[in-house]
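Recall that a protein's primary structure is simply its ordered list of amino acids. Everything else, from secondary elements to tertiary packing, is in principle encoded there. The following example makes that idea concrete.
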Amino acid sequence: MEARFRQLSIKRIVAAFLLIMFFFSLLLVQLFKLQVLSASELSEKQSYYMTRDMPLTASRGDIYDRNLNILVRDASCSMISVYPNSVKEPETLSIFLCSKLGLDYDSVYSKVTNTKLDYVTIKRGVENHIAIEIKDEKLSGVRITEDKKRYYVDSTSAAYVLGFLGSEHLGMYGVESVLNSILQGIDGRQTVLTDSQGRVIESENIFKVESQPGRSVSLTLDSILQYYTDNAVLEAYLQHRPKRVIALVSDPYTGELLAASAYPSYDMSNAWNISDDFQTAFSKDFAGKTLGEQQLEMWKNPFTSFIYEPGSTFKTITVSSALNEGVVSTSSTFNCSGSLLVSGIRVKCHIFPRSHGHETLTQALVNSCNPAMMNIVMSMGGERFYAALRNYGFGKKTGIKLDGEENGLLTDRSGSAVVNYATLGFGQGLSVTPLQLLMAENAAINGGVLYEPMLVKSEINTATGDIIVEHSPKVVRNVISEAVSSIMVSMLRESGERTMGLNDYKDLKIGGKTGTAQKIVDGAYAQGKNVANFYGFAPYDDPKLSVLVIVDEPTGDQSTGSMVAAPVAAKILSQAIGYVDSRQSGDYSSRPAFIVPDMRGKTKSEAVATLESLGATYELTGDHDGIVTDQSILREEYIPGRKIVIDVTSSDTNTVLMPDLKGMSVQQANSILSSLGLVLNASGGGIAVSQSVEKDTFVTKNSVISVTFKYIQ
């Protein structure tokens, strides 16, 4: 019995031992799996729950004018992100973020609850003081990192040249897009430790790869000349109420673009907003289009994509080509009977039923005689004439560093009826872009050299300020001889002296040629819809600047190039020539200068960033934070040492101080009043001339402010 019991005990001990060994083996297998086979996976999971990887946005390069005055610059701001898996109360967090960031609740909530993603960006470009308020709440799952925001010294000036950025801090249009690979830096990243609620644990052991800033660029634009051009363009728009006004200023001997203005345009700091003036001017084009399609229409660059028949400004090209080919000479004469029968079709002169009668070549150009131009083209023959036009660059892109450039329209009809190409002689039957015509007209008066339009002057190391790449004017080819070019200057001098719209500017010695062309609508020339344009240069005995002005669909009794476009060019040149002559040398960098931008409506931080970028002396008055409602110096040339006083008004209180709205556009007045919590009741159009509540008067928020706007007559 005892032996049997002993035998049973041994079996139990063996069984227990085997069971222990089995479980121990399982434990060893599990430890092997955890420590060896699954080590990498578990380490990744641990890193996932204890660390977060966040991008560090690189600073884009600055954009300067030719005198190294800042036009566009990055400034520090914040990016608000959320880790959905770490959020405890998504509804509460969404409501809070919406209240601070002015976002739609449904959009924020869908991001906050999207647990399939490691992290989501809620908003970029957030002002730092708002980010601090969010950080102080210490909400689970929220991460605030440094971001970059683009600041514009003047957010409406040269918009079609500078362009703007998309949501990822990448260029969408203009120089920002075309030179994106130069301006864009290389983003960095950092890994931070977090607790179980996703909050960052302050630690020195943070892995960080610093971002690298992009290169800066200096453009050929001159801030002062841009200011003169912007003012003249806006004044012409308010006076003639056309669809649009376009003006380009260049150095005819280098092809450098010194100013480029168009109105209506868009605000680069709020590029998705379509202004009231743009809505009104392009209402017919916008019919039936979605908001996105309307925005695309607004962003189209008019300097490179506006295609139009130039009309009589093109006669300069016709005459110079014929002179260069030896088809005509300065002693050639013509007889205008008021019309000309070509291929069985009677083509009228612009003064029909009157006529010019007997005229010399110079008189034919000055008189802008259509029959004379057709006779010249027929004498050249279709093949030679088309070859001359292609040599001038028509029908082909100019190659400027801007987006959306069109070829224009030049269809060779030399093998068809003569009338199909004879009308090209007076600018009918082909289409050009503003830049094409400007460069071609420049070639006619600069000795015969066709230049590629130049916009980028240099590339600069952002950190050191050293010039990395310096660009030079680029010659495309010679199109006419120097002797012919000299003749054209003399002819255009007489043409300028005979232009009625230049009568008040005789002392400027402006040479040039006007043009008025009917617009084509639905395949036919539309009565009452003109494109008035003028190409001019000054002074005619030593051209320093050239200007092309285009007024699309001017209204009123006077809608010709002479009466509508030429005065705009003269206003620009009257200021620009004096500015250029004030320098002792022809070097445009010899006198750095800038125009004090209109900062009314900007936040205090935006205004400060702008003024410090310009190196201006300033003083802030009023509230600690808020928006700029007034400034002591506005759109004037800055004099070093002169103090700019900036008034800041906050909308946090129930009553606000009424700003002075006089001289503002409807859009600008509405922007400022909305920022202050006031409501605009606008009447009329143009600029503000009176307001129902006088400036410096305290007014209760949500009050309706009636403002009267009038166009310049």
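Confidence is low (pLDDT under 50) at residues 584-592. Residues 2-37 form the longest helix (36 residues).
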